[in-house]
Specification:
The radius of gyration is 29 Å and the shape is flat. Helix 4 packs across helix 17 and helix 16 runs antiparallel to helix 20. 51% of the residues lie in helices and 11% in strands. It is of the alpha/beta class. It has a five-stranded parallel beta sheet, with helices on both faces. The protein has three domains: 96 residues, 2-Layer Sandwich (Gyrase A, domain 2); 253 residues, HUPs (Rossmann fold), CATH 3.40.50; 176 residues, Isoleucyl-tRNA Synthetase, Domain 1, CATH 1.10.730.10. The N and C termini lie far apart (58 Å).
Length: 608
């Protein structure tokens, strides 16, 4: 094949991160050796299955159809005719693939400049231009490059998560929702989206009536201890459920309480407000402790009456219809069954309030592109029915149900009604106790405050990582011992790798990095930096697919590489130039681990 003009572009630096620039360079090299009508996309490049086979692989199957040759013949022809330059060192044919090898020094320097140039934003939408230089061990920032449009969002999203009910306990089952929502929000923001965070709290309904009925009848005047409000009210709710199961005639007393609440009875409303605040005080404290911040908190109580009015309007317009006294949307012909909007006695349902909630959200945030609802998988059909109803009503916004499976106990699924839940408070205390024991074994000279602070950082990281490492559609049987382990696929393992890198930098003190130090990278050093270079692509994929599990897997793999580097490559005791180069690498690894943990909602400790 004849080499065409334009191949010189392969050596130019674009505005992307190092790995993307390398792919762009390889794509330009291929285009220069192909007919004008042949397309080569950066997204088509793959990572070879074995490191010995190269660093980037381009599959020639689409080109084979165009050129009417076998993929292997196309690969051979390209490999002998393409050139090199910039970040690309060489190319060779491996079966139906053209495999490229990166220039070890040029690529490694580019990765270090990417990370150290703007460590706090590495992997996100914007980055420091490659002209950034490393001087005297300091981070020199340049102007941000233009926004990347290939995978970055630039959309305005409402992400709704954190939807516990008042008058019940916050328990381990809720935590997967909290952790998933927090990470999805951080990933979306990192990739250039504007995110409005919202929580929708269930503060009315049958469960509230049950709790208030049992409280007034059996516990009138009792008060919960601070920090145990949810457990106190949850216990009363469980008691109410048990008593009603034993004597179904009590259902009418509960129904009377619910009717009194919906009609605005002053005495019941006063009790509702007081007990509701007990729940909210504890709930907000938990949100704050876990880093879950909300721009807007919605309550079922604020959309109940507007929801009833809206449903009556749908009935009047002929959009909805009556069935045995209830108001429904009939989706039988669409395979979605019947969507119940209002009970026959006129009382509201989730759907009644959710329709009004959607209208309220989009009236408050008019320029929003999409609304993402993070709710467990049991509600999948419900959300299909809800979104279809909103579509019929004229809503043209994108609505997404991001579902996830359950967190279970060995005994089975948890249930507030049955009372077999592990409350957040109990779970937190047990996690921190075990983390504190381990920390004290390692650091017997630390004072209690230091141990307690570190123990919470480890416990929180273990809980978040332990739930986020699973794909959203996989159930979780949470094991405290496994989650807290310092070895294996765990949060503490990744946190410890970060702490090790911090320790090296702390011992190094002040140091000066000369330009000449960024050369002669060893294969081991290049391997670690190749993993660091993959971070932006993982951020993009995790954000695009709403899959924090991709980030957890990457963080674990980078921690493994960091641990091997710590074990096998001398840093502090190396010669001057090797020492400077490797300290720059330690800084880059540490920054990338910190970013990965941050996007999972996990703190990165400097000591453990």
């Amino acid at each position: 094949m004849e080499r065409k003009r334009g191949s010189g572009e392969a050596g130019k630096r674009g505005s992307g991160y190092a790995l993307e620039r390398a792919k762009e360079a390889a794509a330009a090299i291929l285009r220069s050796a192909l007919p004008e009508d042949a397309a080569v996309s950066v997204s088509e490049f793959e990572e070879p299955p074995q490191k010995e086979m190269g660093d980037l692989a381009y599959p020639c199957f689409p080109l084979a159809k165009l050129m009417k040759k076998s993929p292997a013949d196309v690969a051979k022809g390209l490999a002998v005719s393409v050139g090199s330059g910039g970040l690309i060192a060489s190319a060779e044919a491996v079966g139906p693939y053209v495999n490229f090898r990166l220039d070890r020094d040029a690529f490694s320097r580019a990765v270090l400049e990417d990370v150290i140039g703007d460590a706090a934003a590495y992997g996100g939408l914007r980055k420091v231009h490659p002209s950034t230089r490393l001087r005297a061990g300091k981070e020199q920032k340049a102007c941000p490059a233009p926004e990347r449009s290939d995978w970055c969002g630039g959309q305005k999203l409402i992400v709704e998560y954190g939807q516990p009910n008042t008058h019940k306990e916050v328990h381990v089952g809720h935590l997967r929702n909290f952790f998933l929502g927090l990470s999805v929000v951080r990933l979306a923001r990192a990739t250039g989206n504007t995110v409005i965070t919202s929580s929708y709290i269930g503060d009315v309904g049958t469960h509230v009536a049950k709790c208030l009925w049992a409280y007034r009848k059996f516990h009138d005047g009792e008060r919960p201890e601070k920090g145990s409000e949810g457990k106190f009210l949850g216990g009363i709710y469980t008691e109410a459920s048990r008593r009603i199961e034993e004597d179904e005639s009590l259902k009418e007393e509960v129904s009377a309480v619910q009717r009194a609440l919906e009609s605005g009875d002053p005495e019941w409303i006063a009790l509702w407000k007081e007990t509701r605040q007990w729940s909210l005080d504890e709930m907000y404290a938990i949100f704050a402790e876990l880093g879950c911040e909300f721009d807007r908190v919605y309550f079922e109580s604020e959309v109940e009456e507007p929801g009833k009015k809206l449903v009556r309007g749908l009935l009047k317009k002929g959009v909805a219809k009556e069935s045995q006294g209830a108001v429904i949307m009939d989706f039988e012909s669409e395979g979605l069954g019947v969507f119940l909007l209002l009970k026959s006695d006129g009382s509201s349902l989730y759907a009644t309030k959710e329709l009004a909630l959607a209208k309220l959200k989009f009236s408050e945030y008019k320029d929003t592109d999409a609304s993402i609802h993070i709710v467990d998988v049991r509600q999948s059909l419900y959300f299909q029915q809800l979104f279809r109803t909103l579509q019929i009503m004229g809503f043209d916004k994108r609505m997404v149900h991001l579902s996830y499976d359950f967190v279970t106990l060995k005994e089975g699924a948890m249930s507030s009604r049955k009372g077999n839940v592990i409350t957040y408070g109990d779970f937190r205390r047990e996690m921190v106790r075990r983390a504190a024991d381990e920390t004290e074994k390692r650091h017997g000279d630390w004072d209690k405050e230091r141990i307690a602070s570190t123990a919470w950082t480890i416990a929180e990281g273990a809980a978040k990582f332990g739930m986020l490492k699973q794909d959203n559609d996989k159930p979780i049987v949470f094991d405290v011992d496994s989650a807290l382990a310092f070895d294996g696929f765990t949060g503490p393992y990744v946190q410890y790798a970060h702490a090790r890198m911090s320790s090296i930098l702390g011992k190094a003190g002040s140091w000066k990095l000369e330009a000449g130090s960024l050369s002669d990278f060893t294969p081991e050093e290049f391997g670690v930096l190749r993993k660091v270079a993959a971070f932006p692509e993982v951020v993009a994929a995790a954000a695009r697919e709403f899959r924090p599990s991709l980030m957890a897997q990457y963080a674990f793999e980078l921690a493994q590489d960091a641990s091997a580097f710590y074990r096998d490559v001398p840093v502090l005791n190396a010669g001057t130039e090797d020492r400077e180069r490797r300290l720059a690498m330690v800084r880059a690894i540490r920054a990338t681990l910190a970013r990965a943990l941050l996007l999972l909602g996990i703190r990165a400790p400097d000591e453990m």
